[in-house]
Write a structure and sequence with these properties.
The protein has about 280 residues and is α/β, with parallel strands linked by helices. It contains 11 helices and 8 strands. Strand 6, helix 9 and strand 7 form a beta-alpha-beta unit. The radius of gyration is 20 Å and the shape is elongated. Bound molecules: zinc ion (ZN).
C-alpha cells in the first residue's frame, strides 16, 4: 500500500465518478459474500471475515494521505509540468490575519506564486485577506469548511456538506471557484471521491511536508522539504495553525526564504496547481 511517486494522471472529467480498482473490487466482494451466504449459509464466518478484512483495507487506504487506492490523488504535478521544471508550493489552513499577510509579502518579494488551501469558514471570517491572496496572483483552493478532526469519519452527507459549503464560501468571497481539494490532515474515506467528482474537484496531497505545525525547528522543516527536491514536487507548508520558533516567529516565515532559494538554485519554477495544468 505504498504511495506512488509517479506523476499525477490527467484530471478526470468533472462530474464523472469512476470507482478505483479497490472500490470496484470491494463492491464485488460484498455482492459475492452476500450471494455466498444466501446459497450456502454455512460459509457465513468466511464471508464475514472477508468483508471485515476489506473494510480494514479501505479504512487504511483512507488514512494514508498519499495513497491512491481510493481514487485520483495528486502526489506530484502532472508529467508535462514536471518536464517544464515546475514545482508547487502549497500553504494550508489559512487565511490567518497574523501570518498570511507576511507570507504574501514574502512571496511577492521573491516573485513566486503559490496555492493556498483555505478553510471555508476562515475565508468567510477574513474575506479581504482571501481576496488579497487571489489579487496577488495566487490560487485559493478548497480545504473543507471547518477543518474537522473527524473529517475522515464523516458519511457521504457530512462530507458533501463540508466540501460543498467551502466551495460556495470560497467562490462567493474570491469570485474564483476552487478546482482542487485537500482533506484535513490528508485523511479521508471511500465516500469522498464521488463527492469531489460531482463538484469537479481533484484531490491533491503532497510529495513532501515539513510538519511545520508541530516542529519548532526551522532547519529540520526545511530539510524535510528539500530532501530530494525535484521537478514536479508538491510541497506542503501552513499559514494557519503554524508552529512558532523559540523566538516566536511562525515556522512558514522562517522556512520560506531558504526554501525558495533552494528551489531557485535547483533551477525549478514555483507555480500554482492551476498553472501547472494550463
Ligand atoms: Zn489542514
Amino acid at each position: 500500500m505504498s504511495a506512488s511517486n509517479a506523476p499525477a494522471p490527467d484530471a478526470p472529467s468533472p462530474g464523472v465518478y469512476r470507482p478505483s480498482a479497490l472500490i470496484g473490487g470491494s463492491v464485488a466482494l460484498h455482492v459475492a459474500a452476500a450471494a455466498g451466504v444466501a446459497l450456502l449459509p454455512g460459509v457465513w464466518p468466511w464471508a464475514l471475515g472477508a468483508v471485515l478484512a476489506d473494510h480494514l483495507t479501505l479504512t487504511a487506504a483512507g488514512l494514508i494521505p498519499r495513497a491512491r487506492l481510493l481514487g485520483v490523488n495528486w502526489t506530484r504535478l502532472p508529467g508535462a509540468a514536471a518536464a517544464r521544471g515546475e514545482v508547487a508550493i502549497t500553504i494550508d489552513d489559512g487565511p490567518d490575519p497574523e501570518v498570511t499577510p507576511a507570507v504574501l509579502a514574502l512571496l511577492e518579494r521573491h516573485g513566486v506564486r503559490a496555492t493556498f488551501f483555505c478553510v471555508g469558514e476562515r475565508v468567510s471570517r477574513f474575506p479581504q485577506l482571501a481576496r488579497e491572496i487571489v489579487a496577488r496572483g495566487h490560487a485559493v483552493e478548497n480545504h473543507s469548511e471547518h477543518h474537522l478532526h473527524r473529517f475522515s469519519l464523516l458519511g457521504p452527507r457530512g462530507l458533501r456538506a463540508e466540501v460543498a459549503t467551502a466551495q460556495a464560501s470560497i467562490g462567493a468571497v474570491t469570485g474564483a471557484t476552487p478546482r482542487y481539494f485537500r482533506a484535513p490532515a490528508g485523511l479521508r474515506n471511500p465516500f469522498l471521491e464521488p463527492v469531489l467528482a460531482r463538484l469537479g474537484l481533484t484531490l491533491v496531497s503532497w510529495t513532501r511536508r515539513g510538519f511545520d505545525t508541530v516542529s519548532v525547528d526551522a532547519a529540520r522543516v526545511l530539510a524535510r522539504l528539500t530532501r530530494g527536491l525535484a521537478a514536479g514536487d508538491i510541497l506542503l507548508l501552513h499559514d494557519g495553525h503554524a508552529a512558532r520558533t523559540a523566538a516566536g516567529v511562525p515556522l512558514v516565515l522562517e522556512v520560506l526564504p531558504p526554501l525558495l532559494a533552494a528551489v531557485r538554485d535547483a533551477r525549478l519554477m514555483p507555480v500554482t496547481l492551476r498553472a501547472a495544468v494550463a
